[in-house]
């Protein structure tokens, strides 16, 4: 039900675009690569699973805070923590694979694996934050559940900066398809 509605709305919205935006132009040579689909798909999947894990961690922190400030609630803290851990444990290897595939693609397109583009730099920051999260979770110290939830909360904002914010803050190799670029 949702998919046909979204497709219909997307098609209808495209008719409302100005003529100059409705014309197709060929992709730049760097985007004419087989690595494009793999890199973009894996990165989007990683962002989605990481965001889901972060949202569960944020919920964990809210419920934990409300538990200490009032009547005790029957909240499955361990289950929430495990849900977050599982989601982030899926998203982290996907993020790693996405960064590696992007590096291979960059070498094919521009002749270097890494160019410190703002998007690349923020994806590295994202990778480091979730590596810290997994390190905290895998050390099995009881206090690390709360610490890792705070790290995941920070990771929530970093993923959004990496996904959307970088394109608004600066230009780089990843600035494709923006109206004001």
What do these coordinates show?
This protein has 181 residues and is mainly alpha-helical. It has one domain: Four Helix Bundle (Hemerythrin (Met), subunit A) (Up-down Bundle). The chain has six helices and no strands. Helix 3 runs antiparallel to helix 4, helix 3 (35-68) packs across helix 6 (144-169) and helix 5 (118-138) packs antiparallel against helix 6. The model has no long low-confidence stretch (mean pLDDT 80).
What is this entry, summarized?
This protein is mostly helical and about 180 residues long. It has 6 helices and no strands.
Chain-wise SSE layout:
Elements: H1 2-15, H2 19-22, H3 35-68, H4 77-110, H5 118-138, H6 144-169
């Amino acid at each position: 039900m949702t998919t046909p509605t979204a497709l219909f709305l997307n098609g209808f919205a495209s008719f409302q675009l100005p003529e100059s935006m409705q014309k197709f132009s060929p992709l730049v040579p760097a985007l004419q690569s087989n690595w494009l689909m793999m890199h973009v798909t894996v990165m989007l999947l990683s962002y989605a699973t990481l965001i889901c894990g972060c949202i569960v961690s944020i919920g964990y922190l809210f419920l934990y805070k409300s538990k200490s400030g009032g009547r005790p609630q029957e909240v499955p803290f361990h289950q929430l923590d495990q849900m977050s851990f599982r989601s982030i444990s899926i998203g982290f290897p996907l993020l790693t694979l996405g960064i590696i595939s992007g590096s291979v693609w960059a070498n094919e397109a521009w002749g270097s694996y890494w160019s410190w583009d703002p998007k690349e730099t923020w994806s590295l920051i994202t990778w480091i934050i979730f590596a810290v999260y997994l390190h905290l979770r895998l050390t099995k110290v009881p206090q690390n559940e709360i610490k890792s939830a705070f790290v995941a909360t920070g990771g929530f904002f970093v993923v959004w900066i990496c996904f959307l914010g970088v394109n608004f803050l600066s230009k780089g190799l990843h600035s494709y398809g923006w109206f004001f670029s």
